[in-house]
Amino acid sequence: MKSKIQRSVALLLMLAFVVMPAYCVEAKDVKPVKNVILLIPDGTSLATVSIARWLQWYNHPELPKLNIDPYLCGTVRTHSSNAPIGDSAPTTSCYMTGYPSLTGYVSTYPVSDPDNDIYPVDPARAYQPVTTVLEAGKILHGKAAGLVFTCEFPHATPADCSAHSYNRSKYEWIAPQMAHNDLSVVIGGGASLLPEESEAYLKANGYSVYKDNLQGMRNDNSNKMWALYGEKDMDYDIDRNPAEQPSIEEMTRIAIEKLSKNDSGFFLMVEGSKVDWAAHANDPVAMATDFLAFDRACGAAIEFAIRNGETAVVIVPDHGNSGVSLGVDRCPGYDKLTKDQLFHALSQFRLTSSGLAGKLNSQPASEARNIFREYAGIELSDADLKALYNCKGYENSPIPESERSSEGIEASLYSSGSLPDFISRLITSKTCIGFTTHGHTGEEVFLAAYHPEGTLPAGMNTNIELNAYLCALFGFNRDLLDELTGQYFVRHTDVFKDYKYEIVAATDRDSLPSLVVKGKKKQLHVKPFTNIATVGKTGKEEDIRLKSVVIYVDKNNTFYLPSELEKYLH
Predict the structure, then answer these.
(1) Do residues 183 and 162 touch, judged by C-beta distance below 8 A?
(2) 28 CB neighbour count, 10 Å cutoff
(3) Structural domains in the chain?
(4) pLDDT by residue (tens digit) across 487-522?
(5) pLDDT in tens, 324-334
(6) Distance between CA atoms of residues 497 and 227, nearest Å
(7) Phi, psi torsion values for 520, nearest 5 degrees
(8) 10 Å Cβ neighbour count for 396?
(9) Sheet order of strands, 490-491 included
(10) What is the DSSP track for 212-259?
(11) Is the pTM of this model over 0.85?
C-alpha cells in the first residue's frame, strides 16, 4: 500500500505531466551548428498538409506519412507589425530579422502605427534596412549562402533573405541587391529578371550563370552558381517538363552539394513558393502536389543533415492561405465518405488548373472534353461545357466573348475572369474540399525541425522567437543582428556628417540616384543596390567591394550604407 507521501508525489508528477507545455528550448541553450537549412512552404495552412498527406497515401499505400512528419514539434504564430494576418514579405522578414514589418516590406523596419502595432515600434527607425540571419552568417562567420525557390528570384520570400525594400514589387531595386549580396548558390525562377549589369557582375566574380539550361546546371562543377528557369516563375511540379525544369528536390540537393564545400558552413533557404500561388487560386490539385514536391525537398535536406551531423533543419510556412478545409457543406454526409469518395477524383488530375488552361487554349474547343478526360479524369457534362464556353478567359470558346454570360450557369462555376479560375472552380466542385477566401489567413502554422543534438524549438513560438532560434543555431543572439544593422545600414547623413555630400538625381526613368561625398583629397561615389563603391581622385578611382549592399530609400531620400566607408576618405 502506498504511503501518503508516495501518493502525493505521484499526484504531483501526474499534474506536472498534464499541465507542463512541450519543452521549448531557450535560445541560450541551443547548441550551435555549422549549417542551417530553412525550408518554407509559402502560404501553407495545416489543412493543406493534411490533404497532401491523404492524397499521397491514397496514391501510394506504402507512404502513409510525409518526410516532415517525424520532425513536427510545434506551431508558429506569424503576423505583420500592425496586423495578425501578414503577407510573405513581412512574415518571412521576421523570421530573418526578428522584426515584424508592414505588408509589402522586405527586411525593412516598419513605419510606426501607434494604435495598431502589436509590439512597440521606434518611429525613428522607419525604412531602415535590417540585417538578416543569412547576411549575419556571411559577415560574421564566412558562411556560404544559398536560395532555392520556384517563384521568380526577386519575389518576397527569397528577397527577404538577401535584400531590403519597403516595396516588394520593386524588382528593379531588389534584383541587383540579390546579385550583389554574394550569394553562393541561387536556383529558381526568373530568367528574364536578371539585369544585364547584375549578370555581368556575377560572371566577373566567378559565377556560372545558366538560364533555362538544365544540363548546364547539372554538369556545373563550380561552387558559385545562378541557375534560373522560366521567364518569371517556374511551372507547378506536375505541370513542369522534367527535361526542361528541375524539381525542387533536385535543386535542393544541388544547392546542398555546392554549399557544403565551404569549410565555414552555410545557410540555405528553400521555398516551396507556389503552394501559396495555388492557394490564392483555390486549386487543390496544385496545392497538394506542390506541397508533396516540397516535402520531397525536405526529405533531401533532412537526409543530408542526419548524414552530416553538423546541420540543423527548420521547416515552417510563413502564413496560411485560402481557408482550405477537407469537408464542406455542399457535400451532404461528407464526414462519412470513404477514402475513394474523398480522394479518387483528386487523384485523377495530371495537370493543375493552369496546366489544363494551357492545353485548352492551345487546342480547338472540339477537344475540350477529351482534354478533361485525359488530364483530369473528368467527363464534362453539358452544364460543365456550357460554363466553360462562357468563361471570359477561354480563348477558343465557340461563343464570341461579347456574348458570354452567366445566364443558366451554376453560380459556383461561372467565371468572368481567367480560365484557370474556372478550372479551379470545376475541380473544387468535383471534390469535398472547401475554401473561405482567395487570400491569406491568420491561423498558426506548423513547425518541424531537426537538430543533431536535439535542441528543438518545440511548442508554440512567435515569429520573433523563431528568429532567435535561427540566430542561436549560428551561435549569436538577436541583439547581434541589431549591432550589425548599426554598422552596415547607417544613414549617409550620420556617416558623412563631417563632409560635403550630394545626392545626384537620376538622369532618366530607369536610372537611380547616386551619392557623391567629397573629402580633402578623395571623392567617394556610391550607387544604390550594389556592394560596390568607388573612391579616389577623378580619373584614378578604384572600386571598394563591401560586405553588404547599399540601400537607397526614396521615401526619406536616404542612403543606408556601412559606417566604415568614411575611412576611405582619409
Answers:
(1) yes
(2) 8
(3) 27-325+438-488 (3.40.720.10), 350-431 (no CATH), 491-569 (no CATH)
(4) 999 999 999 999 999 999 988 877 889 999 999 889
(5) 999 999 999 99
(6) 42
(7) -70, -35
(8) 16
(9) 490-491, 558-561, 551-553
(10) S-HHHHHH---S-EEEEESSSSPPPTTTS-TTTS--HHHHHHHHHHHH
(11) yes
